[in-house]
Write a structure and sequence with these properties.
heterodimer; A: alpha/beta; OB fold (Dihydrolipoamide Acetyltransferase, E2P); Rossmann fold; 3 domains; five-stranded mixed sheet; 26% helix; 22% strand; elongated; B: alpha/beta; six-stranded parallel sheet; two-stranded antiparallel sheet; 11 helices; thiamine pyrophosphate (chain A)
Chain lengths: 459, 329
C-alpha cells in the first residue's frame, strides 16, 4: 500500500516551512531512519528522516517550494512490488494540511473553584473538647513531642537534616530523638541541602515518610528545585500515581541580627505552589497538632517555624493523640470594629496590637490563619462581613504577599461589606539590615498594626 | 556493517539474543513512529528520542531482577518500554490523551509506573540522581535487597547535585547504580567542550565509588557490566558507577538542527556501530535465526507500534475536569 510522506512539524511552533532539498529521487529505495530531505523552518535547516521503508513512488512537492504547510503530503512511498504509477499524481502547489493537528480544547474553564457563597460559614468548632486537661509547653517541646509521637506511631517516618542527631538539633528541636529512635531513623546529613532534599523526596516516592529539617529555610533555597519540581508536581504529572508524603520543616523568617541572607520569610513563596501544603503555626498547641497532621498527610508539606517563637510557652492540650486539621483558621480574639489577620510570628505583633487597640476602645477580631495552603477564606470573609474592615499582618515582603492575596479575595467576595480599603502590614521592601536600629525598622511592628487599624476605622 | 571484535563467538543463547533484538527494535520503531507523529503535530512540546541508545536500557534491564527500581531523565521512552510499560500508554501520553500513562498530564518527559518500579521521567537535568539515591535509601531502610538504576547523561554528570548525591550514597552505602549514558553531547555541546575530564566513570573515585566504562552499542557487554554492578550493590557495597558509551542518532529534541556534528559522524555510527545490527549479525552468523525469522519479528514489532500509534490517536483528550484532579492525594 502506498504511504504518504507528510510535511513534518520540526519544532513546537512550526506551521509551515521550505522544502529546501530532496536527498532522494523517484524510484529510490529508502530505509527507515534514512535522511530523505532537508527542510527549512524559521529557525534552522533540519534533516528529515523516513519512518517507513519502501520506494519513492512520487515526489509531490518539488525542491525549493516555500510555505509548505505542515501535514501536506510531500511524497509517496510504495511497497515492494507495487507499481510506481499506482501513486497519486503530483500536485502543482502545496495544499493546505489535510488533517490538521487536534486543536487544544478551547473551552474556557472556570477559574479555581472558589465559588463565592454569599454568607460564608466559619468553622468555629473548638480544637479540643472543653474540659481537656492542659499543660504548659514551649513551641520547641511541642514540635519535638509531635515528631516523637509520629515516629512511634509509624515506622516509615524518619527525620533527616543537618545536626538533627548527635548535635541534638541546631535549635534543639530534635533533642533526644537519636537516643529514642536510633541512627537509622534520625539521620545527620552533610551540609548539602540540594542533595539530601532530593534523596528524601525519592524515598518518599518509594513509600517512606521523611521529615526533612532545614537548619533554616534560607538554606532550602538550595533545594527548592527538588521541593517544587520533584515533590510538589509529581502527583499531577503522574496522573495521580506517584505521591510524595514528606514534611520540610525548620525555622523561617528573621531571627535576630543575622542580616539579609539568614532573615527571610518564605510564606508567600511556597503558598503559591499547587501541590504543596503550607503551614505556619504560632502557638505551641498549633505547632504540635499541625505537625502531627503534616506528618500523616499524603502530600508534601512546608512547615514554617520561627526561631523567636521556639522558646515561647503556651497551653497545650494533654491528649494522647491531638491533631489540628489543615485549612481551619483560629479566632484568637473576637471583636467588632476591625479584623486583624495574621499567621506565625506576625500573630505576636497582632495580639499585642489588639491589646493596645482595646485600651483605646477599638475592638479587634484576631484571626490566625495557621495554614496558608489551604487557606481558610471563609473565616476571614465571615469576620470582614461583621467588622467591615481588615488589616493583614506578616513579616514577609510587601510585593505579592499573603496579605495582597487576602485583599484581592476580600475584594472579590466581600466588596460591598468593606468600609475602608484593606491595609497590608508587612516587612519593609529591603534586604534585612544587620544594624540593630535598622533591623528594627525593617520588621513589622505592633505600632504599625495599631496605626493601620486606626486608619481603617477612621480614628 | 563492519565486523566487531567477538561478534561471532558469543555464548549467549538464541532466546536471549532474540529477546534483545525484539526489545531494541521495539524502542527504535516506537521512537521513529513518535518522530513521525511529532511531525504530524500529534505530539507537542519537547520530544527526546532514544534512537541509537537502545542497547543501554535493554542490556541493563537484562541484569535487573523483579522489584529493582529505575529512574531517568526526560529521554525516557526507551526505559519505559524496556521495563515492560505498555507502548499504547506511552504513546498516548506523548499525544496528551486520556489513555496515556499520566492521563495526558505529564507528557513525554513525565511518566511513571509503580507496577513496573519506574519512577520517572524527570525534566530537570540531574534532579533524578538524588531522587534515585532516595529510592535506594528507601530500599535500604526497608532491607528488601533491591537495587536502583539511576540513569543520567554526560551533561547531567556536571551537575552539583550529582556530587552531593555521590557523597551521601557512598557514606550511607546506598544500593544504587549510577548509569551515565554518555552519548557525547549535552544537547549541542560536545563533551570536550563542557567537561574537564572525559572519563566520567572515574568521577566517583573521590567518594570511594567504583566505576567502569562499557561499550553501550554492545548489548551483551552492557548486560555483563550491569550484572557485575548489581552484584556489588546487592552485596551491600554501596553505589557503583557505570559509564555507558553510547550515541544518539537523532537530535537532542525534535527541534534540533544538529549543526554541532557532521552528518558523516552520525552515519558512521549507524553503519559501523549500530547495536541492533550487531545482534542481528550475531543471530544470523550464529545460525540462530534466518532473515525470514527476523522479518517476522520486524512485522510483529511494526504491528505493536502501529497499534500504539492508533491508540494514541483514538484515545480522547482528557476530560476538562482533569485539570483539577491529582493536585493533592
Amino acid at each position: 500500500m502506498a504511504t504518504e510522506i507528510l510535511m513534518p512539524a520540526l519544532s513546537p511552533t512550526m506551521e509551515e516551512g521550505k522544502l529546501a532539498k530532496w536527498l532522494v529521487k523517484e524510484g529510490d529505495k529508502v530505509t527507515s531512519g534514512q535522511i530523505i530531505a532537508e527542510i527549512e523552518t524559521d529557525k534552522a535547516t533540519m534533516e528529515f528522516e523516513a519512518v517507513d521503508e519502501g520506494t519513492v513512488g512520487r515526489i509531490l512537492v518539488a525542491e525549493g517550494a516555500e510555505g509548505v504547510k505542515v501535514n501536506t503530503p510531500i511524497a509517496v512511498l510504495v511497497e515492494e512490488g507495487e507499481s510506481v504509477s499506482a501513486a497519486p499524481a503530483p500536485v502543482a502547489t502545496p495544499v493546505a494540511a489535510a488533517a490538521p493537528a487536534p486543536t487544544p480544547a478551547a473551552a474556557p474553564v472556570a477559574a479555581a473553584p472558589v465559588a463565592a457563597p454569599a454568607a460564608p460559614v466559619a468553622d468555629g468548632s473548638p480544637d479540643w473538647p472543653a474540659g481537656t486537661p492542659m499543660k504548659t509547653m514551649t513551641v520547641r517541646e511541642a514540635l519535638r513531642e509531635a515528631m516523637a509521637e509520629e515516629m512511634t506511631r509509624d515506622e516509615d517516618v524518619y527525620l533527616m537534616g543537618e545536626e538533627v542527631g548527635e548535635y541534638q538539633g541546631a535549635y534543639k528541636i530534635s533533642q533526644g530523638l537519636l537516643d529514642q529512635f536510633g541512627d537509622k531513623r534520625v539521620i545527620d546529613t552533610p551540609i548539602t541541602e540540594h542533595g539530601f532534599a532530593g534523596i528524601a523526596v525519592g524515598s518518599a516516592m518509594a513509600g517512606l515518610r521523611p521529615i526533612v529539617e532545614f537548619m533554616t529555610f534560607n538554606f532550602a533555597m538550595q533545594a527548592i528545585d527538588q521541593i517544587i519540581n520533584s515533590a510538589a508536581k509529581t502527583l499531577y504529572m503522574s496522573g495521580g500515581q506517584m505521591g510524595c508524603p514528606i514534611v520540610f520543616r525548620g525555622p523561617n523568617g528573621a531571627a535576630a541580627r543575622v542580616a539579609a541572607q539568614h532573615s527571610q520569610d518564605y510564606a508567600a513563596w511556597y503558598a503559591q505552589i499547587p501541590g504543596l501544603k503550607v503551614v505556619m503555626p504560632y502557638s505551641a498547641a498549633d505547632a504540635k497538632g499541625l505537625l502531627k497532621t503534616a506528618i500523616r498527610d499524603a502530600n508534601p508539606v512546608i512547615f514554617l517555624e520561627n526561631e523567636i517563637l521556639y522558646g515561647r510557652s503556651f497551653e497545650v492540650p494533654d491528649l494522647p493523640d491531638f491533631t489540628i486539621p489543615f485549612g481551619k483558621a483560629r479566632v484568637w480574639r473576637e471583636g467588632t470594629d476591625v479584623t486583624l489577620v495574621s499567621f506565625g510570628i506576625g500573630m505576636s505583633h497582632t495580639l499585642d496590637a489588639a491589646d493596645k487597640l482595646a485600651a483605646e476602645g477599638i475592638s479587634a477580631e484576631v484571626i490566625d490563619l495557621r495554614t496558608l495552603r489551604p487557606i481558610d477564606y471563609d473565616t476571614v470573609i465571615a469576620s470582614v462581613m461583621k467588622t467591615n474592615r481588615c488589616v493583614t499582618v506578616e513579616e514577609g515582603w510587601p510585593v505579592a504577599s499573603i496579605g495582597n492575596h487576602l485583599s484581592a479575595t476580600i475584594m472579590e467576595r466581600a466588596f460591598d461589606w468593606l468600609d475602608a480599603p484593606v491595609i497590608n502590614c508587612t516587612g519593609k521592601d529591603v534586604p534585612m539590615p544587620y544594624a540593630a536600629n535598622l533591623e528594627k525598622l525593617a520588621l513589622v511592628t505592633s505600632d504599625e498594626v495599631v496605626a493601620a487599624a486606626k486608619k481603617v476605622t477612621y480614628r | 556493517m563492519a565486523a566487531r571484535k567477538g561478534a561471532a563467538k558469543s555464548n549467549t543463547s538464541r532466546e536471549e539474543l532474540l529477546s534483545y533484538y525484539r526489545e531494541m527494535l521495539l524502542i527504535r520503531r516506537f521512537e521513529e513512529k513518535a518522530g513521525q507523529l511529532y511531525g504530524m503535530g500529534l505530539i507537542g512540546g519537547f520530544c527526546h528520542l532514544y534512537i541509537g541508545q537502545e542497547a543501554v536500557v535493554v542490556g541493563l534491564e537484562a541484569a535487573a531482577e523483579e522489584g529493582d527500581k529505575r529512574i531517568t531523565s526526560y529521554r525516557d521512552h526507551g526505559h519505559m518500554l524496556a521495563c515492560g510499560m505498555d507502548p499504547k500508554g506511552v504513546m498516548a501520553e506523548l499525544t496528551g490523551r486520556e489513555g496515556g500513562l499520566s492521563k495526558g498530564k505529564g507528557g513525554s518527559m513525565h511518566m511513571f509506573s509503580k507496577e513496573k518500579h519506574f519512577y520517572g521521567g524527570h525534566g530537570i537535568v540531574g534532579a533524578q540522581v538524588p531522587l534515585g539515591a532516595g529510592l535506594a535509601f528507601a530500599d535500604k531502610y526497608k532491607g528488601n535487597g533491591r537495587v536502583t538504576f539511576a540513569y543520567f547523561g554526560d551533561g547531567a554528570a556536571n551537575q552539583g547535585q550529582v556530587y552531593e548525591t555521590f557523597n551521601m550514597a557512598a557514606l550511607w552505602k546506598l544500593p544504587v547504580i549510577f548509569v551515565i549514558e554518555n552519548n557525547q553531547y549535552a544537547m549541542g555541546t560536545a563533551q570536550k567542550r563542557s567537561t574537564s575530564t572525559p572519563e566520567l566513570h572515574t568521577r566517583g573515585l573521590a567518594f570511594g565509588i567504583a566505576g567502569e566504562t562499557v561499550d553501550g552499542m554492545d548489548v551483551l557487554a552492557v548486560k555483563a557490566a550491569g550484572e557485575k554492578a548489581v552484584a556489588a550493590c546487592r552485596a551491600g557495597n554501596g553505589p557503583y558507577i557505570l559509564e555507558v558509551m553510547t550515541y544518539r542518532y537523532r537530535g537532542h529534541s525534535m527541534s534540533d538542527p544538529a549543526k554541532y556534528r557532521t552528518r558523516e559522524e552520525v552515519q558512521k555510527m549507524r553503519d559501523e556501530r549500530d547495536a541492533i545490527e550487531h545482534v542481528r549479525e550475531l543471530l544470523i552468523q550464529g545460525k540462530h535465526a534466518t532473515e525470514d525469522d527476523l522479518k517476522a519479528i520486524d512485522k510483529d514489532i511494526k504491528a505493536i507500534v502501529n497499534e500504539a500509534a492508533e491508540f494514541s490517536k483514538e484515545s480522547p483528550e482528557p476530560a476538562l475536569s482533569e485539570l483539577w484532579t491529582d493536585i493533592y492525594a
